[in-house]
TrEMBL record:
Designated name of the protein: Ferredoxin--NADP reductase
Reactions listed under catalytic activity: 2 reduced [2Fe-2S]-[ferredoxin] + NADP(+) + H(+) = 2 oxidized [2Fe-2S]-[ferredoxin] + NADPH
Organism: Comamonas testosteroni
Highest classification ranks of the organism: Bacteria, Pseudomonadati, Pseudomonadota, Betaproteobacteria, Burkholderiales
PANTHER family to which the protein is assigned, alphabetical: THIOREDOXIN REDUCTASE 1-RELATED-RELATED (PTHR48105)
Record has Oxidoreductase as a keyword: yes
Documented EC number(s): 1.18.1.2
Length: 355
């Protein structure tokens, strides 16, 4: 969607727009720290992310891998870093809108921006901060005949809640930590739990693997080594999957709920249609302010390009700070004071620091 007037679109929306000063697109480490820096400037922000949880790449791809270059933290995992950032922004009470991707970004008559998501949420905001990394991380789709004909509520990608498993025949498809955890969780409520992966090796923590081994031995979880080749249905209702084992033989397995964990992949998606200046699929910004080519829109992290840019988390933290100061000046019409968290009573009040 181009950066065009959208007053009529706002009036046609089925739900009222959320009014805010800032929208942050992307809830990875850069987006979380952006929320913190905006909070220090007294700017309330809403976070939007395509994943069902915050953390972006750090949570999804590096949850248990060590990171060694965060200032003051000799070593931490991706998950630990995200947990620390969440603790840091807790005083700001940042509102999160997860499992939805920003679809539209349009200019309003009054200088604000209208942001629309795939979940139908609508926002009117004075500033936008794009911290989308290399794009929105979205689940990899299952590609097999019959998938597109399924009705809703039967095929689930990386679901947060597993209520749909109760009393049903469930197939968990994948071999990572999330898939193993889902199979373990479903085993206590599902009528039958099957975990299918292309090889008999799972990428999970030792405690999870030990639990899976116990459930396999007891028959609570059946593990199948193979790949889905077809999804069978009747009148849009999931009935079974056809799958192929390592020898090339085909089999059929009754299934009522299919939970797919094939990983995630980054996609720029509609961002490329927003009319913002791009350089080799990255947003061009002013390194002094992280401002894009559109007034009130800033970008930080791996999604941006400028001379000397380094794609490191600590560089994104610096960019978030510069963007917050620039946005405060944009919103207030004057340069914000440079205050220090060690001495500022105003910042202490925001952070809930007591003396």
């Amino acid at each position: 969607m181009s950066l065009s007037n959208a007053t009529t679109n706002a009036s046609l929306s089925l739900q009222p727009a959320v009014e805010t000063d800032a929208i942050i697109i992307g809830a990875g480490p850069a987006g979380l720290f952006q929320a913190f820096q905006l909070g220090l400037q007294g700017i309330q922000a809403h976070l939007i992310d395509a994943l069902p949880h915050v953390g972006g790449q750090c949570s999804q791809l590096y949850a248990h891998k060590p990171i060694y270059d965060i200032p003051g933290i000799p070593v931490c995992t991706g998950l630990e870093l995200v947990q620390l950032l969440e603790k840091q922004i807790a005083p700001m009470q940042v509102v999160r809108h997860l499992s939805q991707q920003v679809q539209t970004l349009q200019a309003l008559d009054d200088g604000r921006w209208q942001v629309g998501t795939t979940a139908g949420a609508l926002f009117h905001t004075r500033t936008v901060f794009i911290a989308a990394g290399v794009g929105a991380f979205v689940p990899k789709a299952l590609k097999a005949p019959g998938v597109d004909e399924l009705g809703t509520g039967q095929l689930h990608y990386h679901p947060q809640q597993l209520d749909m498993a109760a009393g049903r025949q469930v197939l968990v498809y994948g071999g990572d930590e999330e898939a193993v955890a889902a199979a373990i969780a479903c085993s206590s409520s599902a009528a039958r739990t099957v975990l299918m992966h292309r090889r008999d090796s799972f990428n999970a923590e030792p405690a999870q693997l030990a639990k899976l081994k116990q459930l396999r031995e007891s028959g609570a979880v059946e593990v199948l080594i193979g790949q889905i080749t077809e999804v069978r249905h009747g009148d849009g209702r999931l009935q079974a999957v056809q799958w192929m084992d390592g020898e090339g033989d085909e089999h059929t397995r009754p299934v009522e709920q299919l939970l797919v964990y094939q990983g995630i992949s980054p996609k720029l998606g509609p961002l490329t249609d927003w009319g913002l200046a791009l350089e080799r699929k990255q947003l061009a910004v002013d390194p002094a302010t992280l401002a894009t080519s559109a007034p009130g829109i800033y970008a930080i992290g791996d999604i941006v390009s400028y001379s000397g840019k380094k794609r490191l988390i600590l560089c994104a933290f610096h960019e978030a700070t510069m963007a917050a100061f620039a946005a405060a000046e944009y919103l207030q019409g004057s340069k914000p004071l440079l205050e220090y968290t060690t001495t500022s009573a105003r910042l202490h009040a925001i952070l809930g620091v007591s003396h």
